[in-house]
Amino acid sequence: LAPESKMIAGVDVQQAKASPFGQLLLSQLGAAAQLDKLRSTTGFDPLTDFREMAVGSTADGKAVVAGRGRFQPQLLTTMAGMAGFPTETYRGVALVGAAGTAGLPAQDAVIAFLNQEFVVMGDRAQTKGAIDRWLAANGASPLVAIVNDVSAGSQAWVVATGLTEMQAALGNKQAGQNNPMLNILDKIDRIGGGLNFNDTVTVKGLAVTKTAQDAQALAGVLQLSTAMAGNRNPLPATPQISATGNAVNFTMSMTEQQLENLIRPRTSLRASR
User: What pTM did the predictor assign?
Assistant: First the structure.
């Protein structure tokens, strides 16, 4: 992933899909028919061939997706070429693109199989940059340290830094006095969260602020916000929120059934999820 990535998210596909909640998500998304079609046409099954996935996004929204699993690069590249997908070779790595393919929107997206274990996806420039970093074995994001903390014991996780910078890049920046959220984000150096789908589903979060005083203030805001949210829609469990030094920790555990009850009634949101 690019060293300038401001947000990195990941999922342990194998563990997540084996959990009851993961099975629920697959059924809610109606993924079975699409996966069957992919298996029959390419022999590639993301649910068995992918072990882990991570995506890194820069402040301006340029992203690289990296996958780890079990791949057959030569076979998949050959089949993609036969299906009409344009291919090229960059530094010995085959790039499979979507631009100009019948029935697909014109875009500069490519997939590159680095070897039988790793694949990267993104626009052409971002993917070539990923190949360069792979061959040089350098360029690690400074977010790696917090990724290690948050991802430990989590099947899905996300970390981010430069929150006000990302919001500004998206065109949402307003004057600080008119946007309390910007004032809060400006005090956060980096933030992360993880989700563990076992019989007990645990959500954990970590926010590292610039000062210990900022951490105390942020913890107070979170405690007030969750209390107000609970008054409108009772939460299935009480979050544990605490500040230690300049770090704020958030933990909430619920049963898999409680989480299902939160999701099932919202049928109108299934497609967007």
Answer: 0.76
